[in-house]
């Protein structure tokens, strides 16, 4: 194992942290302080020992209710502070800390004060708004009556001046006139305000209800704050004149239905002036009272806003402590709480120190007892990550949480994921644009960490270091492809090709595209060294560019895919060696390596040999006739001497690897199970105590790192979890092994073909970039029109950013994700563990 270790065990991320199940026996009087101290450490995952009890039946249910009530009050204060337009902040020197009883009393006192202040403020505001509307009614309706009186007086004077000369015998007493005046005395009116949008319907309904026996006068008064809702509304002052008691009843009901506010209005002008003056005086007094109340309320809210975050954090911490205490079991004397928790071995010194400090702070005479427990339960998986490795670990965890202590794919994913992305996205210019975006994220890292980002930008910011690597590798592959926004570069000098005319080099022709016009052909002189780095720029723009790049990228994809899959199979070997699963190494790892490399490893060797030897052999022909006619190699498929015998040998061992993967392992597992059954019967005959016998048979995990690893080995090796323990089904094991074998054999073909997506997406990216450059930018430049050039550059920029930088990068990201999840990780990664979720106050800050 040491030979094949390669130093990976020295990498912190290579395997999950070693875990241990511990039992804590905590005195009841110091339980709260102890759990709070462990929450500050944040490295203990408590098991729920009261899972059979409901939330209301647990020991600290009342304390949780108290915390919920305090949290409700704090949310109420948050709403009031936000409604007042204040910001929740922290003072440089916070108020003295409160314990929970003091804080509960303080919050209750402040809530009562705020509710009283809000109630007074609402009542005063309603009274003020009502008086404002009454003042408008007195002003506008008074003008109606004043104008009506003036018109009536002028009309009456004109009628008397006209009729006196003609009717000298008319009665002089008013009582002798017809009964029209008497009927006019029975007229009534209602005055008030109504929203503008309801005015038309109000007028129509009044007309229909009174059959036209009414008269409505109205005028707009602009925006008025409604007394009921406190919102600004466009309103009109109205006066409705009616005749009769029945009409009055109808008018009042219609006003109520349309939410029209009615106000008293005296007919006597002197009383109107007196009421107007009283209302004005009352408004000034109310304004003064409201301002004083508002200043007092703002002072209270300001004090609350300074301490609100501190109080909210304290309540969240207390609630988290009591939730954790509810997971602990109480002994019969109710003096000791018993807890079980998973703890990383490396964190035990910190846990011991926290327990010592908690015992000292609570002044208890008995300290907490911490002791390891033996268990058959699988431990949780915990990886220590930092800002750089978090995003790569998240990529792996999205597929599934690693089983305890199995190899972590994130170690290689840090390099292979951005590299495979860059193979599909390779372009020097596009890589520079991506690097600029990543540099912006890194430069503003501290400022962005303090801000609340939207979901999409937060996702990009979380993967900022992955973006840096993707941009770096994209620049690298762009140099290999020799593409800068689809244009060739000459960073490493000009082309090595020359124009041959009549068998001799014409040095006067520098642009190889002009060579055919002079009757020559482009070729590489013998002895000329190849282009120093990447693709020779001579291929750009030629008819053979696409076939050449297709051939190169397709073969490169196969090479990368086979190497990547071999790496996945090697990772399974590291797992087998660590868990001491020799059976899986012999019956799975070795035949898998033989099968994959005897077929596709041979193809990779043939590709490299063809490149080095410059042969024109058709590799399609080689691989097809390797199966159709083994042992014979025709001229079209010849690569090297002894090729036929080698191909027959590779076919034979690849075919032999299939039953090797399928049959031995189930039968060996069956023999092991039969041996364990015989050993169990021997224990029963000797007469071990039941508990000791159970421990001996189950191989419980001792409280140390070695035993934890052995437990994980038992769960990992020898059949992948089938056939171990008290239940063994040979048929189930055979079916499982058959599925595993068929999946690998078919997957070896399909996974290799799947890596051709590297070629396909790289080609698509290159061709899209070329289309945007040639058909958009260069075509408009060729028009020699400044406006057309500006439009063309704008379209080119939008297409580059929208299609290539956003859509193409997302497509390449998803395809790289698939290659890692399916083609790479399915060779070794089980991903059936569960994450370590410690009790920590960091999540409640």
Task: Walk me through this protein's architecture.
By secondary structure, the protein is of the alpha+beta class. Among the domains are: 14-49 and 327-406, Alpha-Beta Plaits, CATH 3.30.70.240; 548-681. Helix content is 59%, strand content 8%. It contains 24 helices and 12 strands. The chain has helices at 31-41, 61-83, 100-163, 180-184, 199-209, 245-257, 269-325, 348-362, 390-397, 410-425, 428-443, 445-449, 455-462, 464-481, 545-578, 582-613, 619-628, 643-662, 664-686, 690-698, 705-716, 730-754, 757-781, 786-824; strands at residues 19-27, 45-46, 187-195, 214-225, 232-243, 261-263, 329-330, 336-344, 369-372, 498-501, 504-505, 521-523. Strands 1, 2, 7, 8 and 9 form a 5-stranded antiparallel beta sheet that branches. A 4-stranded antiparallel beta sheet has the order 4-5-3-6, sandwiched between helices. Strands 11-10-12 form a 3-stranded antiparallel beta sheet, with no helix packed on it. Helix 1 runs antiparallel to helix 8, helix 2 (61-83) packs antiparallel against helix 7 (269-325) and helix 16 runs antiparallel to helix 18 (643-662). The longest helix is centred in the first third of the chain and has 64 residues, at 100-163. It is flat. The two termini are 45 Å apart. Residues 160-185 and 688-725 have low confidence and may be disordered.
